[in-house]
Amino acid sequence: MTTVAALMGMLDGWFPRVWAEPWDNPGLQVGDPRANADRVMCALDPTIEVIREAADTGAALVVTHHPLIFEPPTSLDMTDALGATLAEALTRGVAVVACHTNADVADPGVSDALAQALGLRLAEALVPGPGDAPGLGRIGDATGAGPSTASDWLGACGQSLGGSPVLIGDGSRRVTRIAVCGGSGTSTLPAAHEAGADLLITGDVKHHAALDALASGLAVIDAGHHATEWPWVPALAARLAAAGVDAIVSQVNTDPFAGAR
Questions:
Q1: Do residues 97 and 4 touch, judged by C-beta distance below 8 A?
Q2: Which of 1, 92, 175, 211 can pair with 198 through a Cys bridge, CB separation 3.0 to 4.6 Å?
Q3: Is the domain covering 105-227 a CATH 3.40.1390.30 domain?
Q4: Per CATH, is 4-103 categorized as 3.40.1390.30?
Q5: Considering only CA atoms, which of 128, 119, 122 is closest in space to residue 147?
Q6: Cβ count within 10 A of residue 17
């Protein structure tokens, strides 16, 4: 029998929790470390629908990217999302473990999965990580017979990642050096520019960050938070399966903006 604690030990080896940002809360969110975890479900968000899906498919452990709990709750109100989800997990015997910013800076991590989904092989970290962590984001040469302009890459993002990606900058710009950062990666804009990137693919690009990118001449594709992090989920499931774990991928779409498309 594989336990939750044993799986957490494996995950800690891949994504050490000491690599997480100080404000983050990776690790066990809810559940008994001693409980059976012979089947694991991988998901991006620990929503109540994901918990129900896990229970219905026999997965006693859900490994997510985003934590269920960021700050200690002051109460467990079953009428709000957190309280209802915690209650569902407890009553149905589903443990939840998160690998968040510690997976962002790992190798392979979130940005490696994003690069792979786009057909890129990028080995260099965009921003150094804490301690011995490989680092945040990836950058390298956009070689091969694939997309050649920023507009071409916009189309490739839509095809490979889905959603409705948006281009900021000159669509005709030739892309020979490319950077990616899964999730909210606007903090990597200065590093991408300094490293000579022609294009940065990330998510959650806000107004002022977009203006900064335009001023610097760096083209940016906002492909969405969910879309740029999702490739990590099946990549994690495949890695767990290669290690002998019965791992499945959640089929619940937790993209909050999916209904607006």
A1: yes
A2: 175
A3: yes
A4: yes
A5: 119
A6: 17
Which of 46, 197, 11, 32 is closest to 120 using CA atoms?
197
Q: Where are the domains of the chain?
A: 4-103, 105-227
pLDDT, one tens digit per residue, over 175-206 is 999 999 999 999 999 999 999 999 999 999 99
Q: How many CB atoms lie within 10 A of CB 247?
A: 22
- Judge if pTM exceeds 0.85: yes
Neighbours of 81 (CB within 10 A): 11
Type of residue found at 141: D
Structure token pair of residue 243: 């290690």
- Exposed (0-12), middle (13-18) or buried (19+): which is 20, by Cβ within 10 Å? buried
Q: What is the pLDDT of residues 158-170, one digit of tens each?
A: 999 999 999 999 9
Q: What phi, psi does 98 have (nearest 5°)?
A: -115, 140
DSSP 75-86: ---TTSHHHHHH
